[in-house]
Amino acid sequence: MTRVVVIDDHLMIRKGLMRMLEELDTPYSVDQAEDAPRAFQKLRHAASEPFDAVLLDVALGERDGFDVLKAIRSEFPTLGVVMLSVYPESQFAVRAIRSGAHAYLNKGCSPEELDKALQSAQCGQVFLTPTTANLLAHDIRSPSDRP
Fold this sequence. Notes:
- There is one protein chain.
- This protein has helices at residues 11-22, 36-44, 65-75, 89-98, 111-122, 130-141; strands at 2-7, 28-33, 53-57, 59-60, 63-64, 80-85, 103-106.
- The protein is an alpha/beta fold.
């Protein structure tokens, strides 16, 4: 059973994602949190049965999802993180992967794509959509002042 926490400040999105995951063939146990403090409380208290992955919204109202990602990476370095957003991949995907997310998906993705991203993330592998892969390749090839 794959244990997942959905972190999103919108109840309808959380409930919809939970329902979507429960309807997939992969067995998921899904919990939810509307903000970072509640998410960290759940993550910290799950020591006996730790979570395998987090679905993290980019825009969490009071706190930026990238700040939350940084805190997750610091405290739970092996936890799989899939970032979700209404924003297109061209806006945040490269930043998300560079910041330590295992995947970046638009909230319009298919349930099967979400399932694949979560399964990759829980194994510590990066999941790239074709669009994100293209953006990363372009980013790597772009001239940079950085060594």
